[in-house]
Amino acid sequence: MAPPPPSAPAGDPTLTAPIPVTSQRPAWRDTFISLRIPNFRLFAISHLIAVVAVWMQRIAQDWMVLELSGSVAAVGVTVALQFAPMLVLGPWGGVVADRYSKRTLLIISQSVAALMAAAMAVLALSGLIEVWHVYLIAFVLGLVTVVDAPARQVFVNDLVGPIHLRNAISLNSSIFQLGAMVGPAISGLLIVAVGGGWAFAINAIACCYTVLTLARLRTDQLNATAPAPRAKGQLRAGARYLLDKPAIFWTTVCAAFVAVFALSTPVLLAAFADSVFESGAGGYGLLNTALASGSLVGALASTRRTTLRLRGVLGGMTAFGGFMVIAAYVPSQLVFTMLMFCAGIGCLWFVTGANQLVQTSTNLAIRGRVMSLYMMVLIGGQALGGPMIGWLAENIGAQPTMVIAGGVPVLAAGGIAVVLARRGQLTVRFRWTSAHDERRRLVAIVPKVS
């Protein structure tokens, strides 16, 4: 573990380095330990239903825009409008999450999301839907995300407390990826069978179920923290905390590269399904399911982590981008699908590790603001990346764009590792192994000991 900078006051919690979280690998029987908490179990069930429905809506939305406009770039614009509010207003969402009840904020945000999904369903099923309708509703949903995302991240601590926080974050990611695996497949079949309008109706019902679940939670069993008082400079304090703490700062830098380039994968998958493999909506759903299946494996694997460090974040980032580069020019959709599965593992190893590292490295009183800045980068970056990747896919082709989308994060991970090594925070240790010691790594990036 790297020591704090010499100028840091002793015991200053804002300048600590990345920290090991556990010294022992958890027992297999404790893989789902946070589900033993009744409130989290209720929340997890509603979260799974909601994620399946959200992914059904997202696939139907993207494919509908592609059919109405005939343009992959238009799909990128939809992604941008949905994520742009987080890029601009994200920090204020964190302030709101720190000041008010997270449960109340989630009830409000999910109620608005239900209304938007119902509006989309009526327009689609009546045949009146136009591209601008999708753009407008996507933008409103983006405004909802500004408050929903940081509140949802911090609310996990209210549900399980600090002891089971890491496990709950990993399970939340696993649930998200399970929903992302099932949702696109169902949506693809639904689009082919009866049209995408019903996906929006199902999502509206799922949002209502989430609201009812939040209302049913036992408030006396929540580990709610006292709201942060209104004061000047709260945004500045959150930003200074992020910048001063290496674990959070470098993780956020990694998230920026991944978000802008690699996380626009659904836009690229639409292009591959439409123009490279010509497999239509069903193929698009299958490719998203493969990516999500790998992500589920990566999320579950993250529950076995014994430490949280930047080298794990950099490794996941490299694997995610690397598999995308390898997949770019494979001639077979089957091989491409298998590589998307592998890319999904790398993606969630990165995302879950980054999320856990930021949350566990942040004091609870300021966590909403720090998480909002992190989510602003992770979600808002896709607002920049979506149109850019869509434009590149339309103008230079899906395959070279896939190389760019995966290659830039790989190069960034290498560059960040070099910077950290030059600053003395990381060093490369070479180890020789014998036939009797195959478990030891040949090369490992480890914190430098002064």
Question: What secondary-structure arrangement, pairings included, does this model have?
Answer:
Elements: H1 38-69, H2 72-99, H3 102-125, H4 131-160, H5 165-193, H6 197-216, H7 234-244, H8 246-260, H9 265-276, H10 280-302, H11 310-327, H12 333-360, H13 367-395, H14 398-422, E1 426-430, E2 443-447
Antiparallel strand pairs: 1-2
Transmembrane segments: 42-60, 72-92, 104-126, 132-151, 189-212, 247-269, 281-301, 313-330, 336-358, 370-390, 402-421
Keywords: Cell membrane, Membrane, Transmembrane, Transmembrane helix, Transport
Region (Disordered): 1-20
Q: TL;DR?
A:
The chain crosses the membrane at residues 42-60, 72-92, 104-126, 132-151, 189-212, 247-269, 281-301, 313-330, 336-358, 370-390, 402-421. The chain has helices at residues 38-69, 72-99, 102-125, 131-160, 165-193, 197-216, 234-244, 246-260, 265-276, 280-302, 310-327, 333-360, 367-395, 398-422; strands spanning 426-430, 443-447.
Top CATH class? Mainly Alpha
Structural class: mainly alpha
Q: Helicity, in percent?
A: over 70%
Strand order of the largest sheet: 1-2
Largest sheet: 2 strands, antiparallel
- CATH architecture descriptor name: Up-down Bundle
What is the alpha-carbon Rg in Å? Answer: 22 Å
Please tell me about this protein's structure.
This protein is mainly α. The chain has one domain: Growth Hormone, Chain: A, CATH 1.20.1250. It is built from 14 helices and two strands, in the order H-H-H-H-H-H-H-H-H-H-H-H-H-H-E-E. The chain has a two-stranded antiparallel ribbon. Helix 1 runs antiparallel to helix 2, helix 2 packs antiparallel against helix 9 and helix 8 packs antiparallel against helix 14. The longest helix is centred in the N-terminal third of the chain and has 32 residues. The chain is globular and about 50 Å long. The N terminus and C terminus are likely disordered.
